[in-house]
What we know:
By secondary structure, the protein is an alpha+beta fold. The protein contains 4 helices and 13 strands.
Amino acid sequence: xxxxxIEVKKRDVKKKSMLNNYRRQGLIPAVAYGEGIxxxxxxxxxxxxxxxxxxxxxxxxxxxxxxxxGYPSIIKELQKDPVKDTILHIDFMIVDINKPVTTVIPVxxxxxxxxxKLGGLLEQELYELEVEALxxxxxxxxxxxxxxxxxxxxxxxxxxxxxxxxxxLTHPDTPVVSVVAPAREEVPAAVEGEEVEAAxxxxxxxxxxxxxxxxxx
Length: 217
């Protein structure tokens, strides 16, 4: 994981209204807890943090600078407004870079599979992988190249290319991505019934016509 410096300040928690005040000031309320620090309410600059997210993503080590002291941390929770999609609050977990941590990393796919070119559908079933490693050994994401996947092929967790420095905690037989045949369109039972009735009706008409011709003869 990359290390990204970020300045933070302690925040006032005496009044709940302060949260909205901080947000109006362009700050994001957060909390830092973990190795060598008591749970500490903090705030950080929204623009600076969003710029970091755009360039580095969330899976990095944030070196928080608080009162002149540095605290390496990872994001444990990032709360967003469900409507506006703005960041409401962040939980930073302070870590010891010399001790393993447990976290989740995103799983992404790349390429177009052979199965898709034959009309199949690519289905991703796992989007996060639980892992354990030293903070600096944690990958920011796992990318699965699906180019060689044919129809009905499946990639399992045990098939992923992960560094030996990373312990994967997700069950090895968990499917990650697969290529499946497109579902056939089923004709509704009501429609089928109507078709059968129509066919029977045509048969009766033909039989009646034939019978009428025989009588004429």
